[in-house]
Amino acid sequence: ITTTSSKINASLTFDILTVVKASQALSGEIVLERLLKKLMHLVRENAGAQKVVFAIEKDNKLLVEGYLSEDGEAMVCQSQSINSLTLLPKTLITYVQRTHEPLVLDNASHNQQFNSDPYIITHQPKSILVLPIFYQSNIVGILYLENNLTKGAFTHDRVEVLQILAAQAAISLENANFYNTLETRVAQRTQELQNTLEELQRTQLQMIQNEKMSSLGQLVAGIAHEINNPINFIYGNLTHISNYTQSLLTLVDIYLENPSISLSAILEKAEEIDLEYIRADLPKLLNSLQTGASRIRDIVQSLRNFSRLDEAAIKAVDVHQGIDNTLMILSSKLEGIKVIKEYANLPLVNCYAAELNQVFMHLLTNAVDAIEESSVLDRNLLRNEKGEIRIRTELRQHNQVAISIKDNGIGMTAQVQNKMCDPFFTTKPVGKGNGLGLSISYQIVVEKHGGRLICHSVPGESTEFTLLLPCR
After folding, report:
1. Does this model's pTM top 0.90?
2. Residue 455 per-residue DSSP state
3. Which domain holds residue 166?
4. For residues 97-108, average pLDDT
C-alpha cells in the first residue's frame, strides 16, 4: 500500500509540476499566433495526441484558428469556418458546443452514437477527445485531439490536466485578443496619422510647385499646431492604456505564480489596481483615440478645401467658405484675438479658389502680426483695447464683391503703404517674413482676377485691406 501511495503521490506531483510549467509557458505569451502554436504543442505533449485542432467561438460560429498535424507541424489558420473543413468530425464538435461537456471516445469508429459521422467513416480514428474551453462561464473555444495509434489514449487523469491547461489557455487567449485588438487600433491610428502626414506633404508640394512659398510657412505652422493637440491627446491616452494592460497582466501573474491563491487575495489585488475603474475607463480611452483621429481628419479636410487641389481652373466658388477655411488653418495664431465676421448674402464668385485663399492667408497673417506688434509696443494697453479682426463682405454696384479685412493693430505710415506691394519689401524682423505676401496678393487680385486691392491705414490705430472682385 505504501509503495502504491508513493507512486500515486509522485505521479500527482509530476502532473502538478507539468501543469504549472505549461501554464507559465502560456501566460508568458500575448502574441496570438505564437500563443496558438505553443498551446497546441503543450496539449499534444500532455495528452499524447497525434493531431490537435483549435477552434474559437465567434457569434455562435466555430472558426478554426490552429491545426497541429501528425508530423508535428503547427499551422495558424485565418479563422476558417468549421463547416468548410473536412479535417474534423463535425457531429462531435457540434455536440460539445451544444452540451458544454467534454467528450471522450475510446474507440470512435465503434461508438454507436457517433460512428455515422462522415469523418469517422472515412478515417476510422481510434481515440478522440473534444474539450470545451471556458472564460467567465462562457464557451470561447474547443480543442479537438485525436490518437490513431491506440484506443483509450485520453484517460481521466489526462483530461483533468487538459482542463486545467484549458482554463489557463482561456485567460491567455483573452489577454492575447485584448493585446491584438489594442495593437490593431494603435496601428489604425498610426496609419491615419501617416495618411494625414502624407496628405500634408502632398499639399505642401503642390503649393511649392505653384510658387506659393510665402504662405507655406504660415500654413504648416498652423496645421502643425492644430494637429499637435489631438496627437498629444492620443499619445497621452496610449500611456494610460499601457498602464492598464500592465495592471491586468500583473493580476494574472499573481494567480499563475500561486495557483492555490485564495479568491479573497485575488479580489484584494483587483481592488488594489482598481479593476472596476479600468473596466469603465478603458473603453472611454479607446473612444478618445477615435475622437482625436476625427479631429485630425477635419483639419486635413479644411486644408484640402483651402488648397483646392482639384480645382486649379477658374470656377464659381463661395468666398465665405474660403475665408472660413483660412481662419481654421490660422486658428492657433488667432488665439486671444476677437474675430468678427459680417457676411453679406453674396453670389458665387468666378475665381481661382486656391489662389484667392492664398490672398486671405496673407492678409489675415499680416493682421495678426500687426496686432502682436501693437501689443509689444503697449499701444493696445494704452487704448484699453483687445486684438480684433473684422471681416466684412458686401455686394457693390457694377457686380463687384467687396471683401474687407480690418485689424486694430499698429497701422502703417504713408511711406510704408507706398512700398507695401513691392517684392521683398517688409517691415518685419528677419525670419518673420520674406516681403512677398502682399506682392503675390496684388498679382493674384489685380493681374489674375482683374480686381482691385485697396489699403487704408491709420498709424497706431488700424489697417483695412479691401478686395474688389468682379462677379461674373
Report:
1. no
2. E
3. 12-171
4. 91
